[in-house]
Amino acid sequence: MESQKENVTVVGTKKKKKPMKIMDVVLYSLLFVFLWATANQWIVFGPQVALHAILKLLVACGSAWLTHVVFYGVVDLKEKKAFPSFWQRVTANHKLVSRNVPLITATILAIRFRTDTPLWMIVIAAVIAELVGKLIWGGFGKNLVNPVAVGFLLTDLMFEQYNRMPIYVDGVTSATPLSGIASQGWYFGSSQYAHFRATFGSWWTLLIGHAPAPSAEMARLAVLIAFAFMIYKKALDWIIPVLYLATVFVITTVIGIFHGFSLTYPLYHLLTGGLLFGAVFMATDPVTIPKNKPGKTIFAILLGVLTLSIRFGSVRFPEGMMIALVVMNLLSPWLNKVAAPLAKKENKVRVATYGAVFMAGLLLVFFVSFVNTGV
């Protein structure tokens, strides 16, 4: 018998959509935060500042991209690679440039800097972030610390006097919520609390971003929405940002109760400076954090402890998050190795270890705050 082929007709089949790449999810989330912050800048400062924010983003992206093109171009010249045309030389390393995700680094920088930051400072920060923070180590995936933190901190140190000034927009000088609290040594007595509310409003004003501040501090609600979106898309791990914010919240609650501050005191720690933005978009950098769960847990706790220790103990660096992140990034390989055996221990052993680390950190921050407030 001859075999007959059956004609099968498939009806109603649809091509499956390709899942979004992790870096695309992060970039779209950052753009959402940027647009939210820019809209708030339009409301608080006016259209000129919003336009300046857009220019900051474009300049940062262009500077970061050109840094990669020039860097790999120099490498090509050193290796004596020949190209038929100049344009082919420029585009030859397109994949290498894209793999190093310069747009993500540049967007974070544009959001993280002050509202009135001049464009030439953005250029310097972007070049430092890409060159010193990433390329000299071999590119994305080989860097030791977060590139944005490197670019931001080194630029901040070089132009310290400028970055410590109040925000100056359209002839009006305005302090930021962070500088307003930090100038009081993070002391939040009744008179300081009343003055802060009269100047900047309540914690809700800080959350929605209607207080004068850098871009990252004018989009906190957008950051939380983006965080939920990235978790849904499995673009990041929730452990570090959640435990980091929880550590800051619990420790500042204890300190606030001891000093007799308002019960909203911990909220002002979470909602001033770029702490919330950094927790979601910088502390989660997969390259510069521990790889195992115990390492991530201890990393998050110590990051919170170090952030608060710097906040309470240093007038020069009132935010604390950036320096704390760089220090913890440098400790990350060691912490990843030391904490790895905890993964094989019983739950009670792990919990006891985390508890011991937290209590030691609480005592350290409590001591620093005690000395700083002079209570």
Please, could you describe this protein's structure?
The protein has two domains: 20-173, no CATH class; 177-211 and 237-375, no CATH class. By secondary structure, it is mostly helical. A two-stranded antiparallel ribbon has the order 1-2. The protein contains 18 helices and two strands.
In short:
This protein has 375 residues and is mainly alpha-helical. The protein is built from 18 helices and 2 strands. The chain has helices at 22-44, 47-78, 86-91, 94-99, 102-112, 119-131, 147-158, 160-163, 177-182, 190-200, 203-208, 220-232, 239-259, 265-270, 275-281, 293-313, 321-339, 347-373; strands at residues 167-169, 172-174.
Oligomeric organization of the protein chains: single chain
Total DSSP helices: 18
Return the average pLDDT rounded to an integer: 82
Largest sheet: 2 strands, antiparallel
**Could you say how many structural domains there are in total?**
2
Radius of gyration: 23 Å
Shape: globular
Separation of the first and last Cα atoms: 99 Å
Q: Which percent bin holds the helix content?
A: 55-70%
Structural class: mainly alpha
The topology string of helices and strands comes to HHHHHHHHEEHHHHHHHHHH
Strand content: under 5%
Task: Going across the biggest sheet, name each strand in turn.
Answer: 1-2
Strand runs, count: 2
Contiguous runs where pLDDT drops below 50 for at least 5 residues? 1-13, 168-173
